[in-house]
Amino acid sequence: MIILADNVNVLPGVGPKRLEALHELDIFTIEDLISYFPFRYEDLGERLPSETLDGEKVTFKGIVSTPPVVSRFGKKNQTRFGLLIDHENVRVTFFNQPWIAQNIDVGQEAAIYGTYNAAKAALTGMKMINASADALDPIYPASKQVSGKTIRHLVELAWADVRGTVDSLVPENIRTKYRLLDRNQQIENMHFPPDMPAAKAARRSSAFEEFFVFQMRLQLLKLADQNFAGEAVNYDSEALRAFENQLPYTLTSVQHKVIDEILQDQKRPRHMNRLLQGDVGSGKTVVAAMAMYAAVTGGLQAVMMAPTEILAQQHAINLSQLFDNAGLSLRIELLTSGLKVTARRQLLADLVSGEIDIIVGTHALLQPDVAFHHLGLAVIDEQHRFGVNQRAKLRENGVNPDILAMTATPIPRTLSITAYGEMDVSVIDQLPSGRKTIQTTRLSHNQLDQAISFVKTQIDDGAQAYIVTPLIEESETLDVQNATAMYETMQLEFPQYSIGLLHGRLSNEEKKVLMADFKANRIQILVATTVIEVGVDVPNASIMLILDADRFGLAQLHQLRGRVGRGTRQSYTMLIADPKTDYGTARLDAMVETTDGFVLAQRDLELRGSGDILGTKQSGVPEFAVGDPIKDLTMMEIAQQEAITLVSQDDWDQHPDNQALVDYLSRTMARYRHFD
Ligand SMILES: Nc1ncnc2c1ncn2[C@@H]1O[C@H](COP(=O)(O)OP(=O)(O)OP(=O)(O)O)[C@@H](O)[C@H]1O
């Protein structure tokens, strides 16, 4: 007798090789197997012959009216018998499936899927179907090593034993409220639906279950965060006010608002886990600087983590400038991989002794030898590149800083509930005043000369420009060649100016020097591949020329455009492209129409359709097997509400009704992919 917790290799036919292949599909136990659902059903279309067109594929169900006869010709053979459907007799022929004859007797009910020949009232059989079930064929997501048919077969074997023994994960009161099936019925109808409505009902229940379990995990994570007794940061409000007064600009009301939200969190003796979401160029850095300064005035250290070394370096420069200009002497250091051994050792010593106030770096900051004197705040830039597990690393060796994650990836409201479910969110939805709307134009390749002469007039006027060439995924060499060719063209076009070339093959050191030169206006034109994409801040750069712009996704184009329009100059983005697809054209049109990242993100979603996993993957939204977090948003919202309600009840995890859920969550938490 097989039970749910058994390893799948208890099933006949699952040897080491197949086991490995099943592991690839995340199937380890019998429970995993029976929760591995078909993603659609082929309707085999049971009908009467009179309703069927010639040549149509169809399923006929009837009574076998003549004994099966197998005739052979050479290596081939055919099996024939009659099938009485209602009052019509149809002649059935199977080719090369002689075993069919052994399973057929006169008088027996049979369902056969095949192609109908109306003139001859004959059916060329393709397969026999379980006559007592409906003609729905479940289609399983398969891999190269395991076919859908094998999965189907294993599910049948397993279900025969565990049927009726599955406990529901969604508590009964919630199931009743939303008319959801219990888990036995749900699983049975996912695999063996008697008809389409039953399959639909089972999918609905499965999707809800999946969302609910996901939301439970988020809520538990949130609770765990809160229970991690965070530290109350006793910051110096006077000092913060003085810092603000020394800034080179006035903070916008939205910046004020989000700074207040963050400070409130820091002040509480609770752990902060907040996401700061703001469009490109909206001024997140100064908000983060305030939060870090708050920690420092409270006698704590702060760390800022960026996804790349270029960005880390930029942040270190920007922060130093901000604090220097305000006359504050904080010690800010940059930890990079290029640091010499002795320098690194000194840096780490100063960090642990508390001499360093703020340290900026990449993932390198998560290495075990990096220890703090007293870390109070971790700012994480571009949050979706850091998984929850990585954040957890920060907590090891006893440090449990407040977390402020920042992202410029505009996630449409419809997705943020899924992407950031466990965090509190602050949004900057207003750009600093004085910004002029970036003017975006679309040009074809034969207008490139025109674009370049426009760049010329702007540079003569003191502006700086980016020229971006597309990343060629198949070949980094081509990619670099492309950028290099453009660089050479620009040198010819602009002999009087200094031109830089930035691409992925350069060392971090070379990149750093280039960026510093560009920032200081020692370089006027920077030809770059997409390495320039996120976070680079050079306010005097006001021209962005993107070549083959149709090769970029909308989010990427928006990020690139966000590199300009950061100062007071009128900025321009020129998209050079001859798009070959409607989708390419639509993306460029969207860019011309709006500069609002949230509008673009929504448009992107519509253009791609919610089924596109790739896009959602990029944005950090987890994938689901059955439910669609965009189409089924309301269901996700309900699942979230119910999860919040459940975990807010005292001793909810002690209640017998919730044991199956509690067990399931603890069993599966460890290998939960969404949080990697
Ligand atoms: N209130 C303000 N008034 C005027 N300028 C501001 C204000 N706040 C920030 N800035 C300036 O706006 C520019 C963009 O700010 P910042 O680099 O913080 O943007 P960001 O939100 O980090 O954007 P990205 O995600 O694109 O890096 C910077 O040059 C910064 O000095």
Automatic annotation (TrEMBL):
GO terms for biological process: DNA recombination; DNA repair. Pfam families: DEAD, Helicase_C, RecG_dom3_C, RecG_wedge. Its EC number is 5.6.2.4. It catalyses: Couples ATP hydrolysis with the unwinding of duplex DNA by translocating in the 3'-5' direction; ATP + H2O = ADP + phosphate + H(+). It is an enzyme of class 5 (isomerase). Residues 265-428 form the Helicase ATP-binding domain. PROSITE patterns: HELICASE_ATP_BIND_1, HELICASE_CTER. Gene3D superfamilies: Nucleic acid-binding proteins, P-loop containing nucleotide triphosphate hydrolases. Keywords: ATP-binding, DNA damage, DNA recombination, DNA repair, DNA-binding, Helicase, Hydrolase, Isomerase, Nucleotide-binding. Belongs to the helicase family. RecG subfamily. This is ATP-dependent DNA helicase RecG. It comes from Leuconostoc carnosum (strain JB16).
